[in-house]
Amino acid sequence: MGSLPVLASPECAPERRAKVSASDLAPLFSAQRRHLDHFFDRLDMSQAAAFAQALLDAPGAVFFTGVGKSGIVARKIAQTLASLGFARAGFLAPVDALHGDIGAIFPGDVLVLLSKSGASDELLALAPCARAKGAYLISLTSAASGGDCPLSAACDLNVHLPLQGEICPFGLAPVTSTAIQMVFGDTVIAAIMEARRLSRDQYASNHPAGKIGKTLIFKVKDVMKKQNELPLCKEGDMIMDQLTELTSKGCGCLLVVDEEHHLIGTFTDGDLRRTLKASGPAIFNLTVGEMCNRFANVNLLCFLVLCDLFLSQESKNNHCGGNGSRSHGEDGITSFTCAVLACCG
User: Fold this and answer.
1) In terms of domain of life, where is this protein from (predicted)?
2) Closest by CA position to 158, among listed 51, 52, 38
3) CB–CB of 159/47 below 8 Å?
4) CB 238 within 8 A of CB 215
5) What is the pTM for the complete model shown?
6) Which residues contact 168 (CB under 8 A, 6 or more apart)?
7) Helix axes 177-195, 45-57, angle to 10 degrees
8) How far apart are the C-alpha atoms of 304 and 306, rounded to whole Å?
9) Which residue from 185, 194, 208, 223 is spatially nearest to 335, judged by alpha carbons?
């Protein structure tokens, strides 16, 4: 492996506080943009289309592999493809594959090998073994096909990802080549989503958790409070007797109902503070019905709920850059709305 330089230990190095300024960043971002434009301008779309079609037509599983940073990108692309639910997809660590994990590959599977140089020893060792298992091999390399890219010769299909250079000071660290790999892989997957006409429901079925799950799956009925979770009281109840109900249900209000559980009005924690300030000790003799906010009819209440939902959605849209395509999630509906909707049935 050659002779590595002996570096001074950190405690012996002179103390110097490093700084990065806007003037340092600007030329680097400009250089990165030029490198990415170089990639976009010179990418062979016929190769890209052949790669996308191979993934679409794969009769078996699709595996991605790579070494170092290319391996990290390979894992990410594999996980994104798996999330679509069209085919079994996964990451195959090249060294582990040579020590038994290649048993996961069956005839008809596709193996995509990512390598900036196209000369990674681990991938060159893996390729003939995967071919012997009956896999279809595709290489994604920044080295053009030929003597400088032995991996392309070992595969059934090679996609050249044009690379003008890395923006690191030495031109070595994969800070541009990995960006190109990621952009290429994710763009192809977006094309596959369109080709397969992936629906929102299909996509949601593989994303039950997180922000995507809340956005696509959760409905108002899934997050609204039900039955004993509701802060209910009768209009004849004493205000001070309902403090526990007001504070323990996490809604910030009491829902005042009649004997048949029809909603009469609300009494909020703000109402409590205002009543205490205005009445003082007399609050101990007041009923909820005397001080609650009564609704003339349920239609008015539903109108207020809709306003609450609209304002919640507008706030979320503004926070997310004005994209109005999202559905209502749990974080876009106030506890008050959830409680009122439940009471309205």
Assistant:
1) Eukaryota
2) 51
3) yes
4) no
5) 0.65
6) 175
7) 60
8) 5
9) 223
Tokens 């990165």, residue? 32
Strands of the 232-234 sheet, one edge to the other: 232-234, 253-257, 263-268, 293-294
- pLDDT tens for 41-83 read 999 999 999 999 999 999 999 999 999 999 999 999 999 999 8
Residue 312 CB burial class (10 angstroms; 0-12, 13-18, ≥19): middle
Helices 335-344 + 298-319 axis angle, to 10 = 150
Phi-psi region of 309 (alpha: psi -120 to 50; beta: other; left: phi over 0): alpha
DSSP 128-157: HHHHHTTPEEEEEESSPSBTTBHHHHTSSE
Q: How many residues does the chain have?
A: 345
